Amino acid sequence: MSALAGGRLLSGLSSRDRRALGIVAFFLLAIVGYTQLIEPLVFRFESALDRRDRSEQMAAGYIQKIRMLPRREARLAELELEKSAVDAYFASDPAAQAAPTEALINELTAYASISGTDIRQLVPDVETLPDGNGRVHDLELAGSYPSLRRYLYLLETSPRKFRLAELELNPPKDDILRARVRFFDPAISLDTDTALEQGVEQLTIGVFGTVDDLPVYVAKESAAFSQAGTAVGLVSAGSPEVSLSRLLSGELDAVVASIYDVLRYRLGGVPVRVLMPLGRPPLEATLLTAADSDFAGLADLAGRTLGIEAHGMTEPLLLQLLEANGMTRDDLGVVYLGRRALMRHLKSGLIEAAMISGLDRSRLRYFGLKPLEKLAAGASNWQSYLVAHADALARDPRQWQALSRALFVANNALAAGDTSTTALARRWLHQPSDEALRAALAPVDFPDLAQAHAELLDEENDLQLAMLQQLLLGLGESVPDVTRADLVDSAWLQALLGEVAGAN
Q: What's the alpha-carbon Rg for the chain, to the nearest Å?
C-alpha cells in the first residue's frame, strides 16, 4: 500500500517538482555517503599527519639529546670530580682512625677555639656499645649562647658523624651558660698498645695528615716498621699547644715538624732533637676567603677569625704578611686547624679567612672561595723533620735505628712511585686519582740516606736555624736561645746513620 501510495504521489507531481525532489534526494545521499565513507578517510588522514608530526618532533628531540650526550657526559664527569673533591674534605682521617681518642680531643679543642666556647670537662668513653661499634662521650661546656650554638653546630656537622644523645642547658650565671652534652661517636676504640713479639716498647709519633709526614704513614701501612724490628703507633698531633703538651707528658715520643715548630717546642720547654729529614714541600701559602665576601686583603680582616695550619712554615709567612700590613697577630683571632678543616669551616662561614699551603687551585671553584694573596719565600721548599724527645731517644737507640731504616725505605718507595705506595699516598692525602696524586707530589722531594747524611752531618749546615731566628726576632716574636748543636747530636746521628747504611 505504501509503495502504491508513493507511486501515485510521484505521478501526481509535475516534472519540476520531481527534479527538485531528485536534487534533494541526491543531496541527502551525498551527505550520507560523505559521513559514512569520506569523513573516516579524512579523519584517518589527519590522524596520520598528526602522528607524522609527533614522530618528527620526537625524532628531533632524540637527535638533540644524542647531540647533547657528549656534553652531558662531560658535565657528569665534572660533577663527579667536584663531588670527589668535596668529599675528600669530609672523609675520615686515617690518623684519626689510628688513635680516635686523641683525635677526638684535637677536634673538640679546635671547635672550642673556633666558637669561643670553654671546655670545662671531657669524659671520653663513658659508655661503649655492646657490639663495639661506637662510643658515648660526656662534654661540659661554658660560654655565651651564640658560642654554644656554634659549638653544637660544629659537633653535629663533624666528619666523624657525631650524634647528640642528651643536651642539658643550665641557667646563665654572669651571662655565662653551662651545657652538658652527651653524644655518640661511631669511631671504634682501637688498642694502640701493640708491640712486637720481642717485647719492644711502642714508639708513638704525632702526624698531621699532610704530604710532609706521608713517609711515616707509608712505612706504617706497608709494614716497613715491623719488618725493621720496631713497633710504631700514629697519633694525630693536634694544635701546637696540644702537641706541645703531649710531648711534655710523654704521650708522644716524636712528631713531624719544621724548624719553626722545633723552635716553638724548644720555647715551650721540650728538649726535642732532629732525627731525620722527611718530605720537602714547596714554601708557599695562599690567603683565602669566601668568593662573595667584601674582603680585599689582610687589612680588611682585622678583628676577624683567621685559620692557619697547625704545623709547617705557614705561620712565619703569615707573620711577614702581618708586618707588611702594619699588623700583629693580636689584630686577628688565629685558630690552628688541619688543612681539610680549614676548607670546611671557611666554606661554612665559621672562620672568615684561612692561610693554606700546597693549595689545589682547581678546588677553589668547587668551594666558592677566592684567593686574596699568595705568599712565597725566597727558598723554594721547606724541610720537614722527624723530631724526637731527647729522653725517648736515650731509651733504646736500636729502635730509632730501625725506625729510621723503615722511613728511608718509605722515602725511596715514594720517590720511585711504587704502585702499592701510590695507593697508600692517595688514601693519606685524599687524592681522587693517580694523576692528581702525581701533580701533588711533583714539587715534593723525599730525601734518601745520602742526602740525609749530607744535611745532618754537615757542621756548616745550620738547617736555616739562624736565618729563621733572626726573622722571628725582627717580627717581635719570642725565640729560644738554641744552636744547631742543641738540635742535632752529630755523634749520635753519625752512629745511627752508619748503622742504617750498614743494614741497607
A: 38
- The residue behind cell 736555616 is 464
121 burial type by CB count under 10 A (0-12 exposed, 13-18 middle, 19+ buried): exposed
377 CB neighbour count, 10 Å cutoff: 16
Decide: helix, strand or coil at residue 137.
strand
Render the burial of 236-269: b for 16+ CB within 10 Å, e for the rest: bbbbbebbbebbeeeebbbbbbbbbbbbbbbebe
**C-alpha cell of residue 244:** 706541645
Q: Matching CATH topology for 94-185 and 282-381?
A: no
Q: Please give the CATH number for the structural domain made up of 282-381.
A: 3.40.190.10
What cell numbers appear for 492 in the block? 749520635
* Residues 6 or more apart whose Cβ sits within 8 Å of residue 150: 114, 115, 116, 117, 350
Give the Cα separation of 390 and 462 in Å (integer): 19
Listed residue (334, 293, 296, 300) closest to 314, CA to CA: 334
Beta bridge partners of 238: none
Does CATH place domain 203-281+382-503 in 3.40.50.620? no
Closest CA to 298 of 252, 332, 340, 345: 332
Angstrom distance (rounded) from CA 411 to CA 418: 11
Q: Which stretches in the chain have pLDDT values below 70?
A: 1-13, 33-39, 42, 81-92, 131-132, 189-200, 362-363, 377-379, 499-504
Q: For residue range 295-336, what is the model confidence (pLDDT) as tens digits?
A: 888 889 998 999 999 888 999 999 999 999 999 989 999 999
Do 111 and 141 contact (CB within 8 A), yes or no?
no
Q: What tens digit of pLDDT does each residue of 434-452 get?
A: 888 888 888 899 988 888 8
* Domain ranges (residues) in the chain: 94-185, 203-281+382-503, 282-381
Q: What is the pTM of this model?
A: 0.79
Output the DSSP codes for 301-320: GTTSEEEEESSSSHHHHHHH
Using alpha carbons only, what angle is made at residue 188 by residues 185 and 193, rounded to the nearest 5 degrees?
130
* CATH architecture assignment, domain 94-185: 2-Layer Sandwich (3.30)
